[in-house]
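Sample 3 of the quickstart, ligand 6-phosphogluconic acid:
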Amino acid sequence: MNGELIVVDDVSGEFAERVIEAFHARPGETFSLALSGGDTARRCYERLAADGAAQIDWWQVDVYWGDERCVPPDHQDSNERLGREALLERVGAANAVYPMRCDDGPDPYQLRVGEVGRFDVVHLGLGPDGHTASLFPGSPALDADDGRLVAMNRDPSGRNPHERITLTFSGIARGRLALVTVEGEEKRSAFEAVRRDDPACPAARIRAERVVWLVDRAAAGE
Ligand code: 6PG
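Result:
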């Protein structure tokens, strides 16, 4: 499989610890963190806000998103809203915040990502269908292999609602560390596909300088 597997009881606690560790090991002055969406992500950010309150200097943190749903920023399905509620409003500071906005199209964000060079941490999740960020099975952005870092996308199966904007695999590969958090039995078969490098499973194609999978026992099938 693509990266290191760590099976844990407490995925969000482990996530928080790894982000704190990466913050202290950052090579630059600031720390760039790309956020995810979904319920696992929410739990991870609430935990990071609690455990990282005193351990991270949030004024040094640049916050990005790995994907976004094409809804207004205050919509309940907005990943920006999730990141603000679960993390940013709780820690009360950041050096800079860069929400992804569908209305702008992918190019301005791609330019920004190009300027960052490397993300210190890209946080990702795994959908039951094997998607990660907003890279869905059989979707057009999977093959944005012309060096695009950010693309518009949608789920051709219609299971995941809303148009999307997302980092491509090349965008994700800008991560020094990709942390993929996976919780729950409903992720077991998708995670099995990751483990056997199933080419039809988008998450099996995640690449970064280092990829770490934080997976609970239910999803790991233990
Ligand atoms: C999104 C996500 C997506 C998510 C997974 C897991 O915007 O939907 O970025 O890739 O991380 O679907 O989500 P759950 O933790 O809710 O299962």
